[in-house]
Specification:
383 residues, 8 helices, alpha+beta
Length: 383
């Protein structure tokens, strides 16, 4: 499996490779396939199945208030008044696989020297896509481990940043939720039909809302489903405006036609445009596509599952039916450096007792992810 290395990456002997080196290398395996996971910074040594840390808000500026000589300090601000805890739950990922008792010995597969190593690499990459859809899920909430078939899951990006999912007061902390003071600004969260949500005006408003929240010009990345990705480019389609009017002499005349023309270097074999940067007054929004934006707590048809996140109702049966459903009209807006992932157990493979059909293995890992500050987040939840 090809690994795209960065310039100057040091070639290491296996005994020198640390967990950090290993997970960094994983990020460089087809990074465009899993943009959210690859963008998230790596941290190791999770230490617990869940984690909690504080987020803060920078104090606002004062007006024309001067400090006089010998003036008392006055009322002091509580430094912790804007601090709130935020956290998430680690999720285990696993992929069982088998090498048949014949295939493991003879014949050799052309182009594969070691079928066991080939399978291990394949399922490590498969787990990356599992992790990507969990991180980018629009409906996945954080739930603790409740036994077989109901293992712990982490909250997805939308639930970690959505003001509608925030806990209500400083003393009401809940795992996998944004705080009562820190959530994605409403102006950066677009809903509605695809053509109504993803408009020029709305995208400009998103940039303004994020600038207001961040208090600085910075760049953003829109990770878009395939339909949303096309809609962004479609915003450049030429626009015509025609009409008719009747003059005093009852002769119908036609208004002049207005056409927006785009000039670019083209050849006879190339036609069209592809927009990958939205340049605004308040920073750039870079656009990339993803196959893995969607939901994770419904069945494969998108139907609701009973008690998918609890031990009641259909319980394990419901969770066992949960599937990723692509929603290509949705997208997630992220700031570089605002996502991180914590590895509790880096990808590993265990051999399970054979059952006569061949050697059985299970590749697995434990991973938690988080958003450093939910204020610097947004999304397009189009239908």
């Amino acid at each position: 499996m090809a690994v795209t290395t960065e310039p100057g990456l040091r070639v290491q002997r296996s005994k020198d490779i640390t967990e950090e080196d290993f997970v960094d290398a994983l990020d460089r395996i087809r990074p465009a396939q899993t943009p959210m996971l690859s963008l998230a910074a790596n941290e190791v040594q999770l230490g617990a199945i869940d984690f909690k840390r504080n987020v803060d808000s920078f104090p606002g500026p004062k007006g024309a208030v001067g400090k006089a000589d010998n003036e008392a300090a006055g009322t002091a601000a509580d430094v912790s008044s804007a601090m709130r805890p935020i956290g998430n739950i680690a999720q285990a990922f696993a992929r069982p696989w088998r090498i048949g008792w014949i295939a493991s010995r003879v014949p050799k597969i052309k182009g594969v020297k070691d079928i066991s190593a080939y399978a291990r690499q394949t399922y490590y990459e498969a787990m990356k896509t599992d992790e990507e859809v969990a991180l980018g899920s629009f409906d996945q909430v954080a739930v603790y481990d409740q036994g077989s078939g109901l293992g712990a899951v982490g909250g997805g990006y939308l639930k970690l940043t959505d003001a509608a999912n925030a806990y209500s007061a400083a003393s009401a902390y809940a795992i996998g939720k944004p705080t009562d003071l820190h959530s994605a600004p409403s102006g950066a969260c677009l809903t509605g039909t695809l053509t109504a949500a993803a408009t020029r005006a709305n995208l400009m408003a998103v940039a303004l809302a994020l600038r207001t929240a961040a208090k600085m010009n910075t760049d953003w990345l829109l990770i878009a489903g395939l339909s949303l990705r096309q809609q962004i480019t479609n915003l450049t389609n030429p626009v015509t405006n025609t009409g008719t009017s009747t003059a005093a002499s009852s002769v119908v005349s036609t208004n002049s036609e207005q056409v927006r023309v785009y000039l670019r270097n083209e050849s006879d074999s190339v036609l069209g445009v592809s927009v990958d940067t939205i340049d605004t007054d308040f920073g750039k929004i870079f656009v990339t596509s993803s196959d893995y934006i969607g939901t994770t707590t419904t069945d494969s048809t998108g139907g609701a599952l009973s008690a998918v996140n609890t031990a009641s109702g259909t319980g394990a049966g419901a969770r066992g039916l949960a599937a990723f459903v692509s929603t290509p009209k949705k997208g997630i807006i992220v700031k570089k450096g605002n996502l991180f992932k914590r590895w509790g157990i880096t990808p590993m493979t265990e051999e399970i007792a054979p059952d006569g059909g061949g050697n059985t293995h299970e590749s697995k890992c434990l991973l938690a992810w988080g958003v450093r500050n939910p204020i610097l987040a947004g999304w397009i939840n189009a239908t």
